[in-house]
Amino acid sequence: MKHIISVLVENEAGVLSRVAGLFSARGFNIESLTVAPVGDGDTSRITLVTTGDNNIIEQINKQLNKLIPVIRVLDLTDGPHVERELMLIKVAAQGDKRAEVLRIADIFRSRVVDATPNAFTIEVTGDSGKLDACLALLEPLGITESVRTGKVAISRGSKGIRKEPKG
């Protein structure tokens, strides 16, 4: 089963390497990974997607909590959460294809972020299923290039993962 794990860490050099090393040393795979500073810049949030049964996920959580720069670990999978991905798709589009590409972009509530006489670059955000469906419809029209982020996720409601204020 896929799990989305959110890890709040100190924003310092080598933290991402330690987290990735923990996974590779134990033979666990990271399916997607996003990292960015949060709050005042002293902390970063790592959102990773991995697979495993409950025992493996429990082991991953315990090992992550042992790392010195890790502040908090939260498995978002079991609780209510919101998750999104971002994808940029460059589609070759000339003549009649241009209108079809724009119709598909509109269907998926995406937006054109770059246009040239020969191509459109479209930004799509949503869950994995939405991005996959958009790709499937654009593929026959001639996708030149695509790039996709990993998942980002946040728990719903007032529950969260944050560093407690000092003092």
Provide mean pLDDT, rounded: 91
Helical coverage, percent range = 25-40%
Structural class from helices and strands?
alpha+beta
Please give the count of helices. Answer: 4
The rounded Rg comes to 19 Å
The profile of the biggest β sheet is:
5 strands, antiparallel
What would you say this structure looks like, in words?
This protein is α+β, with helices and mostly antiparallel strands. The chain has 4 helices and 9 strands; from the N terminus they run βαββαββαββαββ. The strands form 2 sheets. Strands 5, 6, 7, 8 and 9 form a 5-stranded antiparallel β-sheet that branches. A hairpin with a 4-residue loop joins strand 2 and strand 3 (43-51). Helix 3 runs antiparallel to helix 4 (128-142). The termini are far apart.
